[in-house]
Structure formats: structure tokens, C-alpha cells
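Please produce the structure of this protein holding zinc ion.
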Amino acid sequence: MIGDLHNHSFFSDGESSPEDLVLKAVEMDLDCLALTDHDGIGGLERAAVKALEFSELSFLPGTELTLEYKTREVHLLWYGLDYHSDEIKDFFRKLRKQDTQRVKRIIKRVNQAGYDLDYEEMLNEGAYVGGGAIVYFTLMRNGLKDYTEEDWRKYESIYAKASKEDRKIFPLMSLKEGVDLVHKFGGIAVLAHPFWPGSFFNLKELDNILEELPLDGVEIFHPDNLKIPEQISELLDFCSRNQLLVTGGSDNHRPSVNSKMGEVLVEGEFLEQLLKRI
Ligand SMILES: [Zn+2]
Ligand SMILES: [Zn+2]
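Below is the modeled complex.
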């Protein structure tokens, strides 16, 4: 039994449609596919409907929440998400509204520095509204023809500054609030990619996190973690010691620039244990 439990569609900052992700998973003979777009549930219904055509594939609805732990950004995978629930829909609607406000502020800053970005135009192009990614995404698409390396560096520093300031106005939820939210709705809370360079957690810190919050699992099989292969067995010991679920996936966004679906998988017992809990 094999599954890829970390995938992004164009409902966040990925390139593929939810349907194409399902078709790809079937083509690759995966037993389980999870869609985990950032901070949103927009693609889940479409993926679930498509997956109904293939009895051999289980579809696992999810999302990847952007949270904060001691001033560091941290990502939490939420599996077993009931996207039909009005309360959950309402939560994500509010989150999206806040993100829209943030993105508009960032665009304003970027334009003040001499760019010419139009929010509505970006939306029409299907860009992601979460975080600053919409701006990033559009610049990237136009980048080859319109933007130089220097433009990029300039944009990145404006974005980093605007984003930091915005967090004072629109603070991220804490990791604890995120885990509580997932549990309130009966989902499974999995700490994503602990060795992601954006918020590297060593084993000691993972111990501390676990003392503070009731995580259900850790994503061990992930491209960033696999860059430090000698720590994978330690992470596996950590999970087994603490009776945590072990998950994994490719975290694919744009297959042309980063990992592809199926490049990192979770197999056998680990996958079965997760599915039993859903
Ligand atoms: Zn992530
Ligand atoms: Zn991701």
C-alpha cells in the first residue's frame, strides 16, 4: 500500500487542477492521495468527485495550515477534514478574507516600489490569494519576460518586510490553536516537514512541542527531511516512542520546478495506521 499525502493544486500555489492530481495518482497506481492546499479547502470537492470514478484510489481530504510556534512559521497538515461542514467552511472563508486584505496591502507596497501589479488581474489569471504567494506566483509567470534578477531581489525584500509588518496586524494562529482546531473537528493533526529550512525543528524541540501539544503525527517522508537521511531513523524512533503516526508525501506544487507527485511516498503499515484513524 502506497500513498502521497502532501499535494498542492492551483487552489493554493500549485500548478495542477484537483482532477489532474487524481488522474496522476491513478496513473501511478497509488492507493491513497491527499490534497493539502495551503489554508484552504477550495479544491477538495472537485478532487473527491473525480476520485469516485476510481474505486482503487482512496482520497483523503486535507489542508496545510500556516501557523506560528515561538515566532517561527510552522505548517500543520490536517487530515480527515469534513469540507462539507458549515462551521469549517466558515472558518476558511474568514481566513481567506484576511489573506485578501494582506495580499492587497503587499501589492500596494510592491507597486510603490515601481511595479505595476493588479490584484483583480492576478485573480483572473487564477493566482493563489493566500499569503504573498499570489504576488510571487504572478511575478514568476511573467518573470521570464518582464523581470530581471535584480527586480526579484528587490521584490523579495519588499515582500519580506511587508509580510513581517502585516503579521502584527493579522497574526498567525499558534501551533496550539491549530492543533485544537483540527481536533475540535475530529481531524488528524500532523506536523509537516520538521526539517523544512523555514522552521527547522531538531529532536529536542520536537520533544518540547509534544510536551505542550497533543500532535497526532509527524510527516517524516518529505523532500526536505530526506536531505538529512541520517536523521530519518531518529525521527522514526521518536514517533514510535511517542506513538505518533508517520506520514509522507512529495509536497509537489509545480512539477517543473520542484518535486513531482509520487517522488516521496508513505508506505505499508504507516499508511494503514493513518487510514484506520480517519
Ligand atoms: Zn509546508
Ligand atoms: Zn505543502
